[in-house]
Amino acid sequence: MTYVVAENCIRCKYTDCVEVCPVDCFREGENFLVIDPDECIDCSLCVPECPAGAIYAEDDLPEDQRQFIAINADLAKKWKPIVEKKDAPADADEWLNVKDKLSLLKR
Fold it and tell me: What is the C-alpha to C-alpha distance for residues 46 and 82, in angstroms, rounded to an integer?
């Protein structure tokens, strides 16, 4: 089992989670983060750090978010690691509770 970043991260992209990751498994895109499933050691340290509540254990991922397993795996191969916290986008809080953001994901 690995951890997965789901839809609520899109356009929010808080990076609090990367600071606590002991294996640097996060990858950064323009408006989203993913977890590299080959690097994740299932420690769960990132889950409580995410202000958006966007990180789930793969087995606990809501049914309507299951596509993010493949999205994380695919984009983790393309995006560069992020290992230090960065400022969230200026409008991150405005996007926090917006639903159905998958079409806004910049790959």
Answer: 13
Q: How far is CA 45 from CA 3, 36, 41, 55, 96, in A?
A: 10, 15, 10, 10, 21
Domains of the chain from N-terminus onward: 3-81 (3.30.70.20)
Phi, psi of 85 (to 5 degrees): -65, 140
| C-alpha 34, offset from chain centre | 4
Confidence of residue 37 (pLDDT cuts 50, 70, 90): very high
Residue 15 scores a pLDDT above 80: yes
Strand order in the sheet with 26-28: 33-35, 26-28, 80-81
Backbone angles phi, psi at 8, to 5 degrees: -65, -15
Q: Would you place residue 1 in the very low, low, confident or very high pLDDT band (cuts 50, 70, 90)?
A: confident
Element (H, E) at 106: none
